[in-house]
Request: fold
Amino acid sequence: MKRLWLVVPLVLVVIASACSTSSNGASVTASGSVTGQVNLTMWMGYTPPPPVNQSQEYLSIVDMVNRFEAAHPNIHIDLQYVNSDNALQKSTVALQGGKQPDISYQYGTNMPQLATAPKLVDLTQRVQDPSFDWNDFFEGERAVATVDGRVLGIPALVDNLAIVYNKDLFAKAAVPTPTPDWTWDDVRAAAKATTDPANKVFGLVFPADASETMVWQFEAMLWEAGGDILNADSTQAAFNSPAGVRAATMLQQMQQDGSLYLDFHPDSGAYTNLFNSGKIGMLITGPWDLSAFPDVNYGVVQMPSFDPGGSHITIAGPDNWVIFDNGADRVEASWEFLQFMASPENVLKDSLATSHLPTRASVEQMPGFSAFDKAYPGVGVFAQNLANVTKARPQVTQYPEVSSFLGLALVSILQGQASPQDALNQAADQANGVLAVPT
Amino acid sequence: MATRGASVRRVMTSDHAVGWAFASPAVLLIIVFGLIPIVWSALLSFQKTNLLSPAHWVGLANYRALPKDPYFEQSMVHSAIYTVLFVPFSVAGGLLTAIALNRPVRGIRIYRTAVFVPVVVSTIATVIIFLWVFDPNFGLANWLLGKVGLGPFAFFTSSNGALYSIVAMTVWGWIGFNVIVYLAALQGIPRELVEAAEIDGAGTLGIFRNVTLPLLGPVTLFLVVWSSINALQLFDEVYLATNGGPGTATYVPVFYLYKLAFQQAEAGYAAAIAYVLFAVILVLTVVQLLVGRRMVHYSG
Reply:
C-alpha cells in the first residue's frame, strides 16, 4: 500500500526535462569516421560493477570495451548498469529529458514501443553494408530487430526454448529417451508416466501467471500446430484457429491428467529448485537455466511437433543493442562499437566466455566453436535449435495487450473455467478491439 | 497610514515569513512529489500516450471507455469485496486484540511487540512468507489442515480463494497498527468514569458497551476512514503475491492501472482510472465522515 514509487519516475521526468544536454566538439568526416574526442554512454543489464559479483557476461563486455578503446583512442565508452527489465521504462524517462544514452540494451518485445521514439536511430542503411553481413544473423533475430521494415537494433543476445528433462525420472518411469522427432503426444505420455502424486512429482512445469513467460511458451506450441498469433498484416487475432485450439487442448489434457505443475510465480525461479530436487520431469526453458541444475542428470531435446514429421519450430527472445541520437559524431562512434561487438570473432569470444548462444550462424562453423558444448553441457542443442527459430512475435505496439488477453485465456483454460475454443475466442475479440485502435 | 515599503518590511520580518521559511522544504517536496504529478496525471487522463512518442488529445474518450471495460469493472468489484472484508476485520480485530493486550499480564511488552512486528516487516517479506505457507503443494497451511482432515486448498492459486487469501494476509500484516492506536486510546480512558459505572452497578459488558466503546468513537472513525483509503489503494500485496491472478481473480484498480501504464503503454487510460479511483475514495471518505460525525462525540 505504499505507492510513492509509482509517482517517483514521473517526477524524475519533470526534473530531467529541466536539465539540458551538451555536445562536445567532435565531428564526423565525409567518409563517416569520427574525429576528435567522443564520449559514449552505454546502458547494459549485466551485473553492476564491483563490489557486486562480476558475472562472466559483465567481464566479457568490459574486455570488449577495453580492446575497442585501445584500437580507437578517441572514443571512450562509459558503461552504466541498468536492469534490463527496466530499460524501456528508464529510456522513456531519459528521452523525455533529452538524457538518453548512446547505446542501450533492450528486450526484443520493447522494439515496437521504441520505434515510436523519434530519437531512436534507424540502422537500415548501415546494416546493408556487405562487410556487416546482416543475413548472417538468424532470421528470428533479424525479424525482432526490424519494425515496419526499419532495422532499429543489432542482436545482442539470442536464446530459444527447448525441453529439458530429468533423465533419472524418465528411467525410473521406463520412459524412452526423447528423440528430436518426438511429438506432443509423446510429451503427454512421458509427463503422465513421470508424475507421482504421492511424492509430489510432476511431469511438466508450465507457467500459469498469464505473463509473457507463459504466453511465449504457448506461442511455440501454437506455431508447432501450424497456427499463428495474428494474421499476416497484424490487424486481426489468429490464435483462436483450429491450430490454437489444438495446442490449448493439449495443455488442458495434461492438466486433466494431473501431470502439470502450474507455476504461478515463474519469475521467482522456484521451479528451478523443484527441478533441481527431482520433483519435475520436464520443463520448457532456454539455455540461461542450465547452470541452475547442478544436481540433476538432465538432457535437452528440441520442441516436439504435433504430427509425426511435423514442425519443431521454437520461439526466440532475441535482445538488441539500440542507438539513440545524441548528435552525428556520437551516433557514428556508437555504430563503430556495435560493428566491433557484432563481428564474428567477438561473438565467438563472448559465447565461449559466457555460454551465450552465438548470434551469427557463421560462428557455429568457426574452428573454435567445438569447445562450446563441452564447456556447457546441453547448450549445443540450443545452438542447433536456432535453426528452428523462423518466426517472431508480431512487431506491433499492441502486442503486450494481445499477450495479456491470451495469457488470461490460457489461465482460465488451465483452471477449467472455460473450454479452449470459448476462451480463445473471447481473447481474440478483446485483441481485435485493441488492434482496431490506430496507434 | 503605512507606506507600501513598510508593509513589505513587516511581512518579511513577521512570524508569518519565518514560518514559511521553516515550512519551505516540506512545501517544495509536496509541490514536486504531490502537486506536479497530480496535475500532470490529470492532463494525461485526457490523452492517448505511451510516454515515448508525442501524445494525442482524446478528450473524454478514456473516461467513456471505462464503463465498457470488463477488467475495470472486475477490479472495482474486487476492490469493494476486499474493502468490505478488510476494514471490519482489521478494525474490530484490532480492538479485540487491544483489549486482550490492555491487561497486566506478565511479559505483556513481548506480546505487544509481537503483534506490531508484522507492520514494520516489509511487504515483500510478508508476501514471501505467505506464499510459502499457502503453497498448494508444499505449504505449511495445507499440511496442518490435512492433519485435521481439511483441504487441500489452492489459496493464492484458486480463482475463488485468491482474493480472500489476500484479505487474510493483509489483515495479519496491518492489524498491529490498529492495535497500537486502540491501546493508546484505551489507556486514555479516564479511570474515574469506569469506577463511576462500577459503583452504579454496571457489569464488564455494560462498561464496555456504554463507557469504553463510545469513548473510542473518534479513534474508530479515524481507523475506519484510514483503513478504507488504504484498502481501496491496495497494490503491493496483489502485485507480489498473485500478480492479479489467477487470471483476473485479484485485479484491483491500482494494480490494473499499473499494468496498463507500465506494461501495456496506455498511460492516458491508466491516469483516467486513477482519477475515477480518486473520486470514489473522496466520496466514500466524505460519507464516512458525515455519518461518523453524527455517531461520534468527542467530549471525554
Summary: The CA atoms of residues 260 and 266 of chain B lie 5 Å apart. The mean pLDDT of chain B is 89. The two ends of chain B are 49 Å apart (CA to CA). The first strand of chain B starts at residue 47 and ends at 48.
